[in-house]
Design brief:
Number of strands: 4
Strand order of the largest sheet: 1-4
Largest sheet: 2 strands, antiparallel
Length: 364
């Protein structure tokens, strides 16, 4: 893997670790709180924690121009992400967790990578290599195996299928967020957390759900700040460098933390389908990590705004007096043609032809 891709890969893996812990720990809390209010406090936890960080930065932190601000054209994408991933997906997930073993649920969450990649490819024309398609196929097969319930009349668990539906909703959320990933991740996740949490809390009160004890509320807020707040911020940073599909495929390593916690908390021993599915998911992840991609490509002239530095080959505009640190402002890119290793990051979301595929240094 090219050195320039190492940082976003690490960010994606840490994000997966934090999110993977959410399924078994949420299942533990479900014994003391209904699904809808739990979803509300999880997202409120992410929003409130990141709001505190934003306020701290405003008072004592770095320059305010290090990240691009959200503008009016960004709000439709942000609203769609909030509805799909912030409101609908966690409620569907938490209802499904009631009838699904925590370890199985943790592995099923890997289907989010498949949904994200398919939506990125068909709806947003993100380039997906043959190696990435193999990863998607392996993760899909693993998710199907985990959905099988040999004791049910129709062979499938409704709880498992509900988790897959939640993953599709998060796939929509990821692709909408991808379109604004150049903007400040802390602001994006703060808005998503507070908006989704407030909506879900209002829904819980309208449904007459009882609010849990303060101890449970505190636990849900803490879990949400890590598994939904810090995790999503890292996920957005990773999407800047890898694109939605590859970041989500790496995010499929989330079950590792979830499975370990499930065994420790619930003593859920895996069956043979679980073991096979886990092996398939590991293989799919390895396909993504070993991907290389290089060909001659053209950057069309564009004007946009995002955080950047001037030592990575795509930002050669001048600043009066120089500007060595990461910063954000509206800037122009002239047309440029060159060849180097790249992923579908902010500057490489071009389409691929057979000619560009022939110049790849690895499977494309």
């Amino acid at each position: 893997m090219h050195q320039r891709s190492i940082q976003p890969i690490i960010q994606a893996l840490i994000a997966a670790l934090l999110f993977g812990a959410s399924a078994p720990l949420s299942k533990l809390l479900l014994g003391q709180v209904e699904p809808v209010p739990l979803a509300a406090f999880l997202y409120l936890g992410s929003g409130l924690a990141l709001l505190g960080i934003k306020l701290f930065q405003r008072i004592n932190g770095p320059r305010s121009d290090r990240e691009a601000r959200i503008r009016r054209p960004d709000y439709p994408w942000l609203a769609g992400a909030i509805i799909a991933g912030g409101v609908a997906a966690p409620i569907v997930l938490l209802f499904s967790l009631r009838s699904t073993p925590a370890a199985t649920a943790s592995l099923l969450l890997s289907f989010e990578a498949v949904a994200t990649t398919l939506i990125a490819f068909f709806a947003f024309k993100e380039a997906i290599s043959r190696r990435a398609w193999w990863a998607i196929a392996l993760i899909t097969l693993a998710s199907i195996l985990l959905s099988i319930n040999l004791d049910a009349q129709w062979g499938f668990s409704l709880g498992a299928l509900g988790i897959i539906v939640a993953c599709v909703l998060w796939g929509i959320d990821n692709n909408f967020t991808r379109n604004i990933s150049a903007k400040d991740p802390l602001t994006i996740v703060t808005i998503k957390g507070l908006a989704a949490g407030t909506f879900s809390l209002a829904m819980a009160m309208a449904l007459g759900n009882e609010l849990p004890s303060w101890e449970v509320v505190g636990g849900a807020l803490l879990l949400g700040s890590l598994s939904y707040g810090a995790s999503i911020v890292l996920f957005i940073h990773a999407m800047r460098g890898l694109g939605a599909g590859r970041t989500s495929a790496l995010f499929s390593t989330a079950p590792v933390a979830g499975v370990i916690l499930s065994f420790l908390i619930f003593q859920e021993l895996p069956g043979w389908l679980f073991v096979v599915a886990f092996a398939l998911m590991v293989a799919g992840t390895l396909f993504l990590v070993s991907e290389e991609h290089e060909h001659v490509h053209v950057h069309e002239m564009t004007i946009h705004e995002h955080a950047h530095v001037h030592d990575e080959g795509h930002h050669d505009h001048d600043h009066e007096g120089g500007y060595a640190q990461k910063h954000s402002h509206v800037h122009k890119h002239d047309e440029l043609a060159h060849a180097h290793h790249h992923m579908p990051d902010l500057h490489h979301r071009h389409t691929h032809t057979s000619e560009s595929q022939d110049h790849s240094s690895g499977p494309v």
